Amino acid sequence: MSDTDGHPDGPGHGDPDPEELAHTVEELERKSATASRLFDVRRMIGGLFVVYGVILVVVGAFDSDAEVAKAADVRINLWTGLGMLALGLFFLGWQLLRPMRPPSAEELAEAMEGGPRPDGH
Amino acid sequence: MHPLAAELRLDTNALDYVIMALYFVVVLGIGFLARRSVKTSLDFFLSGRSMPAWITGLAFISANLGATEILGMAANSAQYGVYTTHWYWIGAIPAMVFLGLVMMPFYYGSKVRSVPEFLLHRYDRGAHLLSSVLFSFAAVLIAGVNLYAMAIVVEALLGWPEWVAIVVSAAVVLVYITLGGLSSAVYNEVLQFFVIIAALLPLTILALKHVGGWDGLSDTLTESRGGDFMTAWGGTGIGSDNPLGANWLTIVLGLGFVLSFGYWTTNFAEVQRALSARNLSAARRTPLIGAYPKVFIVFLVMIPGLAAAALVPEIGTSGSDLTYNDSIPFLMEQLLPNGMLGVAVTGLLAAFMAGMAANVSSFNTVFTTDIWEPYVKRGRTDAYYLRFGRIITVAGVAASVGTAFIASSFSNIMSYLQTLFSFFNVPMFVVFIIGMFWKRTSVKSGFWGLLVGTVAAMLNYFWIYKQDVISIPSDQGANFVSAIVGFVAGAVVMVIVTAFTKPKPAEQLAGLVYGTRSPGMSEPPAEGDDAWYRSPALLGWGVIVLAALCYLPFSF
């Protein structure tokens, strides 16, 4: 908790003590839920880019000659779509091959008791 | 900021709007999903210091990749040519490497939650409060200016009224940051990074093809703008004349050293991303991982700017409706078919939101942990500060919406204010660098260095330059000189004040001054972080060499 128990708070002693602030942060780090509860962003990026990629590839396949001519004679929707699809699949594949490591039961128990955090803090 | 030319209205259709809508759904979804991971104030303000390096690294660069930066650097290229590379290769990379290799152990190891908090540890509450208040004002102001800039672009491209664009995007940023805190800001920044690249890369390729490749572009512009336009250093000899109004010395010292180190190493909107990393190694790698894309992003903004200058030779003059800022929107209108057009508009919107969200998420942190918690309501529970952080996010977004509306009626005042606040990073950097490398630096000198340095830079810009006491050919050149003045003035005052006041006791300097260590700096590397390709020194020196190599083709 970020209270300031036992800290002299009168005039002249008003500066928060650096060591105490560092302790507060350590304490909060132990209680933090980000590492254990936050979802994997690779799934979101991968999902959105696959959807974008598919849309653009389909649109690009049916682009009219006028549209291709506008884009300096490049089927830009098709190429961009393929690129985005590839990036999306890369993120989904990466996430499948190297999933975020959920903390083990032992580490969770340690965290509950206020022990060191999984990554060695 | 000038209103964009009316002919820039894009021929968007339902497909483009579907692409935009999908993006907004995902952005908000990230906010809602991130909410359950916010348990403490540290989760809200710094993602519990638990993010992996690749995420913080991409967020670090994305926070800088706001649309004002993208449109502004394309404009810079249309106006000044290849000189724009200086803002990247010398004006960003060395500072980012310095942050990662030299400064990060002090920042991350001291467990501070913000840049001003570091000043509290090294100096006193005077320096702390001054920097916190200035930073808070600047962050809200810049967020507002971002919103306004977006509203102008969206009005020109899509025909939405300005207030609709301002309210809608402010609401989206508000929702995802209030719910998920820094985690959703950072996650969205990573997503934005890829969307922005997906928008700019195809546009750059088409623009280049359209003007006849690099050779065609180079020939056209060399003919119309002179040989120096396509070089990085041509005409920058001291005493010689060039459109930038700066010589190699002011470029290296003003832009490459003072301005860039000030921005990249002490601007909390950037440093916050690194402080959310999961360990010291990841924190050090954050700016280094960001530096690699930064080396190449310059091509994605410079080539469109150059192409616009080649296609519309009168751009930016009274002979054309187009201003330099219109370079990218102009090419979008000319070259992109529906579909890709939707991606490009989404990329611009993403960039505006990235720029705004970085400021909002750093503002709520500084206001809560550096102003409210130590000086207004001390000793409350963590749940109180978490709740306060959410409330102040709402207040900050509301204030930036207000700023945006004020900007729409007084845009000159806004650009003035923006310049004014830009001078505040420079003395911040002086105070950091002297305090970090000179043990004797007294606690009182921080406040005075900050104050005098800021005032001196402003005086130089607004009095000596604007009132023509000394003639400097361009605003950019004057910026560089003002930054150098602010740096020197701040440094001199710090040395004088230090000579007459007490140093900080040596035992309180551990982990704050170069050559000392704190317990937080000696943590062993986590499993896997000792791999050679994760070595900060290798990553850092590698990107410096890469940036130097990139200069070669543009230097001779």
Structure characteristics:
heterodimer; A: 121 residues; mainly alpha; 6 helices; 63% helix; disordered N terminus; disordered C terminus; B: 556 residues; Sodium/glucose cotransporter
Total count of strands of chain B: 0
Using only C-alpha atoms, the radius of gyration of chain A works out to 26 Å
Instruction: Label the CATH architecture of chain B.
Output: Up-down Bundle
The shape of chain B is: globular
Using the CA coordinates, give the radius of gyration of chain B: 23 Å
Helix content of chain B: over 70%
Explain what this protein looks like in three dimensions.
The complex is a heterodimer of chains A (121) and B (556). Chain A is 63% helix and 0% strand. Chain A is mainly alpha-helical and 121 residues long. Chain A has a domain at 39-100. In chain A, helix 3 (41-61) packs antiparallel against helix 5. The longest helix of chain A is centred in the last third of the chain and has 22 residues, at 76-97. With 556 residues, chain B is an all-alpha fold. Chain B has a single domain (6-519, 531-554), classed as Sodium/glucose cotransporter. Helix content of chain B is 72%, strand content 0%. At the A-B interface, helix 1, helix 2, helix 3, helix 4 and helix 5 of A face helix 1, helix 2, helix 7, helix 9 and helix 15 of B.
